[in-house]
Amino acid sequence: MVPEPRSADHQLTGPAWLTAGGYMALRVLRPGARTLLVEVTGEVDLGTARRLDEVLRDHVRGDLGEVVVDLAGVTFFSVAGLNSLLRARLLADAAGARLTVAAGRSRAVRRLFTLVPTDFDSVADVRPVP
Fold first, then answer.
1. Is the dihedral of CA 29, 13, 54, 19 positive or negative?
2. Residue 56 pLDDT > 50, yes or no?
3. How confident is the model at residue 53 (pLDDT cuts 50, 70, 90)?
4. What does DSSP assign to residue 4?
5. CA-CA distances (angstroms) from residue 2 to 24, 73, 118?
6. Are 119 and 98 within 8 A, CB to CB?
């Protein structure tokens, strides 16, 4: 079961649910003048990662200080999702922003970051999976 977005009062990017070998919902917020927050829920796989790439390409530009990708609601996370994050870091660097990845309690995300070493300096809440 895919979690539903927590609130309808936020901007929802594109269709609420994408079906491309799974389900994924994205929400793009601007909590501060120079902060972009992209919340991702559901499954990030080869099919849905393309949509994540599109959203990041469309929004990571201009005068940003920080780009936060919140993956706490992700139930499946593949290497395609990791590649999206690597591309997001390049976009953030080009915009002069810092990329922060928040894994939260997502076991799927934490597991992949444990298995595949990355050089993300700004990954929050990533601990080895018990």
1. positive
2. yes
3. very high
4. P
5. 8, 9, 27
6. no
Q: What does the angle CA 122 – CA 128 – CA 130 come to, to the nearest 5 degrees?
A: 150
The owner of tokens 């590649």 is 83
Of 35, 39, 33, 36, nearest to 52 by C-alpha is 39
Beta bridge partners, 99, equal 67
User: Cα separations (Å) of 117 from 33, 64, 79, 88?
Assistant: 32, 27, 12, 17
Residue 74: which pLDDT band, with cuts at 50, 70 and 90?
A: very high
CA 69 – CA 84 distance, rounded (Å): 11
Alpha carbons 113 and 83: distance in angstroms, whole number: 12
**What does the alpha-carbon distance between residue 43 and residue 55 come to, in Å, rounded to a whole number?**
16
